[in-house]
Write a structure and sequence with these properties.
133 residues; N-utilizing Substance Protein B Homolog, Chain A; mainly alpha
Length: 133
């Protein structure tokens, strides 16, 4: 499993957690890994680190998103797909050693694949303004 596939799985899990709002995070991660038959140790580590890291830094990540929205936008107006993509990309940019260009490119690719028509432009705009700071 390559890094793009790991990232896509982390996004899918993050999205399902956004929609379901389940409590026991570790149990949800384990359930996702089992049901998707993910056995690659590197993938398991990446996915767990990403989900737990996003949870741990939830407030800061959310603040980054809110600070870079247009003035008439609120965070609850963002689709769950875009919100999940943004959280994952911001986590990678701010809390890991992933180069910001890679994180942004991968986020835009996820937005093209899973988001609505203008999702890629929206995601790219928010992440570009975060990186400029």
């Amino acid at each position: 499993m390559n890094r793009t596939q790991m990232r896509e799985n982390a996004f899918k899990l993050l999205y399902s957690l956004e929609v379901q709002k389940k409590q026991n995070l570790e149990e949800q991660i384990d359930l996702y890994l089992q049901s998707n038959e993910i056995e690659n140790e590197e993938a398991i580590t990446y996915i767990k680190d990403a989900i737990m890291g996003i949870e741990k830094n939830q407030e800061q990540i959310q603040s980054e998103i809110e600070a870079n929205l247009k003035s008439n936008w609120k965070i609850d107006r963002i689709s769950k797909v875009n919100l999940s993509i943004l959280k994952l990309a911001i986590y990678e940019i701010k809390y890991t050693k992933v180069p910001f260009k890679v994180a942004i490119n991968e986020a835009v690719e996820l937005a093209k694949r899973y988001g609505e028509e203008n999702a890629k432009t929206f995601v790219n705009g928010i992440l570009a303004s975060i990186v400029k700071e």
